[in-house]
Structure formats: structure tokens, C-alpha cells
Specification:
The protein is mainly alpha-helical. The protein has a domain of 45 residues. The protein has a two-stranded antiparallel sheet. A hairpin with a 2-residue loop joins β1 and β2. α1 packs across α2. It is elongated and about 65 Å long. The protein starts with 7 loop residues before the first helix and ends in a 23-residue tail after the last helix.
Length: 77
């Protein structure tokens, strides 16, 4: 094995998320790929990097479809 496996704690620190968040992602099948060794959960560094690289990026905010229907009321004087 060329790289050492990462623990849940290692990954949560690298991603700056709580262990609970990382575990929830795993249950929802949203987070990075992981492997199980018995009851232990481990992450391959290359899988973590691939997952982060594949995340959407950008800073353009999409306008919600219902936002155009919102009206503003005049502020009473």
C-alpha cells in the first residue's frame, strides 16, 4: 500500500467539519469514499482528494425561481 489510510478524525480535521457531519454524509452517501476494516472506517487520501476536486465551485448565486414573485411593501413613514 503506497499511502497510509486516514481516520475519521483526520478527515474531519482536513475538511473542517465535525465527526457527526462526516458520519451523516457517510450515511447519506454524500461524502468521500471510505473503506471498512471490520468496524473501523478509513479513508484513502487519493479518494478524499478526488472527492474534494469533484465538488462544485464558483461564486455566482443563482436566483431562486420564486424570488421574482416577491413584492416589496413600502415602509410606513
Amino acid at each position: 500500500m503506497s499511502s497510509s489510510l486516514l481516520t475519521e478524525t483526520d478527515v474531519s480535521k482536513q475538511l473542517h467539519v465535525s465527526l457527526a457531519c462526516l458520519r451523516r454524509w457517510r450515511l447519506e452517501k454524500r461524502g468521500p469514499m471510505f473503506i471498512k476494516i471490520g468496524q473501523l472506517v478509513r479513508y484513502r487520501p487519493e479518494d478524499l482528494e478526488s472527492w474534494v476536486t469533484a465538488l462544485p465551485t464558483g461564486g455566482e448565486r443563482r436566483k431562486p425561481s420564486n424570488e421574482s414573485q416577491l413584492t416589496t411593501r413600502p415602509v410606513p413613514a
